[in-house]
Amino acid sequence: MAISFINNIFVENVMLVALFVNVICVGAALRPADTCLSETDYEELCGNVVKYIYAIGLSHVLVHESVASIALSELRALLGFSPLPAWQVYNRTKPSETELKNAPTLEAYYELREPRNERRCLNSTHLFEKNVDAGIKYLDEHFPAIRRIFRQIFEEKLLREGVLDKKLIDHMINVYFEALNRVDKATSDMLWYKLKCDDLEPYFE
């Protein structure tokens, strides 16, 4: 029993170290030392609907939601579920224990548990769905490491855990939040780093 417990702790620590190393690699991939995001880059990131001075301010909210959408897309794909649906009106009501218990399929259970927020919904006061679509397109084209790192983290966890059930879905949602926090920080650091380039720095003095 004691040996089994020690082995479990060892495996868990190895997985945490692997996750940490992966996130460091993402940060390195997102921050090439000799490049900066141009005015055109920020406009493209926002779908070319506003000029760069407004796009810069919008980018921090937009990138966070775009990264979250990429992560959820990868999680759904690896769980074998349908792609992310179109945005819906945000519902603050959490599913009841009865609803969760009676979910007819694992995908239906996941749909009830999937993380949502007020910025990725039809009644969002921050963004349109097309804004996030543009953000995802830009990140996939210019920073494909973001999607790859989520896929790798989720794959490692799924391979380790085995059979898919409600408990594993709950666990993978926790993994999603852990990975999102780390990758989102690396992405935000990258954005701030590139904002300090000579051509845009005067706008922040």
Automatic annotation (TrEMBL):
Signal peptide: 1-29
Domain of life: Eukaryota
Entry annotated with the keyword Signal: yes
Keywords, alphabetical: Signal
Designated name of the protein: Uncharacterized protein
